[in-house]
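Deviations from the work plan: none for this task. Representative record:
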Amino acid sequence: MTLEGFRPSSYLTSETARLQETIGDSKAIAAVSGGVDSTVAALVAKRALGDRLFPIFVDTGFLRIGEPESVKARLGESSLGLRVKLVKAGGRFLEATRGEAMAEEKRKKFRETFYQVLGEEARKDGCDFVVQGTIAPDWIETQGGIKTQHNVLEQVGIDSLSAYGFRVVEPISELYKDQVRVLGRHLDVPKDLSERQPFPGPGLLVRCVGTVSKKKLDLLKFSTKIVEEKLGPFNYDQYFAGVIENRFTEEPVYEGLDETAAGALGLPASETRVDVFEDRVTGVKGDTRSYGRLAGIKIKDDSRETYGWLPEKLRLAQSSIVEKLAEVTRVAVLIKEKRTGPPLSVIVRAVSTRDFMTAAVAQVPWKILKDIADSILRLRSSSRVYYDITPKPPATIEFE
Amino acid sequence: MTTIPVVYVKGQYNHLIARRLQELGVDSHLTPPSTPLEKFEVMGADALVMGGGPQSVRSLDTLTGELRDASNLMTKIRLPMLCICVTHQLMATTFGGATNLAKRPEFGPVEVSVSDEDTILAGLKPSFTAWESHNDEIVSAPPGFKVLASSDNCSVQAMRHEKMNLFGVQFHPEVYHTSKGADVFKNFLKIVDDYKRA
């Protein structure tokens, strides 16, 4: 695939020259995660620096099961030749984010710890520079105050040299994901890596809505595995799980949402129920960050069996609720619940998107969603499983 | 080559506009609304596109920062101009129309009905799905402007000046999910070409 107006070879030539000029004879760390952005950024830098580039993978503890080891092995294969040093820092990240419920604070504490760790590694290896895979949506969203991406410093006025002891270099910061993938293919990055679905830098931290606990994080790791296995064959652009506590707000402003949802769905109000979660989730309404509520629609089981997925009606219910209340940024529909079980909900999300600036809800077959819910509930670590039915905007792709 | 700077008013999609224009073979980069008129001449600008942003533009007196600069720029520059989302609303506020809080805001996919397909909406009749993200909307188009399209929630989805090459759209033609969005830019480029020849 080629994209109009984007020529990977000339991009590579000019970027390699720019890196050589910036970095000179110094050494640089490349922060890699196994994702396409950091892999491509590291490969571009390797062309410019050769052996003066030191790829480092920071294990933040917010990664998927088996991820650090598999990434290290994969990037080290001869076709890529990135000899990665694994730095285990899970305990530090958990400590830094402990007790923090606000999404932006969690992201900022993550960023602080992340760069402290990189700063220490840079000093050990005598590196003056850190190469990272920041891309256009990262700095656009951070600068616009939508959310703090962990890999954006200079665009928001943080001087990395005085704060952490190194200078940041971003070889692909003007590109979007689809352009990065084209560049990756040009650099012979294997297809499973160049097409890999994105995984946020702060990882499972931003899919663990509200405060992080070991219980939530473990449920999230196993649910993520289930969702990735079951949805993998469908080739959606992105699909994952989130976890939120079953605490619901009683604020009067949310009364009447049962009727709003029922009206849009064409069902009697007695057939539906809307629960509004206490913990907040991130959205973007009118180009502004909106840190609001998640509304969960329940359609009574017998109606649900009759009506199945109802994608068009659910879309209408979703838009009616977010248009009616500025406070609501996301709507999810209950797939299945258990009367007993820990008070946690898993939210499944799957979207189609090209550049991650806008996203449409994937129409996953209802049978598959039920199958996922059954598998997750069998873990006995949660009592509800929802499917997120909110496009971007008004929601962001990730929960926080 | 056609040169169309994108006036950056801090919207998330502003950078995407430049990308779309580059894909159509246009020389396009972001430039702040405080850019002096002479500088547009130096860069050889043939037209301008102004993007969206997070601000509210309900009154000229309360405009600040980029949007105040953008409003000034609109009144001074004599080039074809396409204004998107908040700068579409700013065009109404600047030229004597009115912008206010929308009765029902729009986020995500919206069906836009075309009433006049002569110019930037050529080929898009009777309707198309566009992506939106706005809390405010134009409640009355300014004098001299004609409404080109509307949606269930919003009466001025697109407008143009009757005589000058000034166009505004509430929706986002630059995002991937507005599948006919490229047509809006192609139509605008045609208008710019005619303007260059004239």
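Residues 8-198 of chain A form a domain with the Rossmann fold fold (CATH 3.40.50.620).
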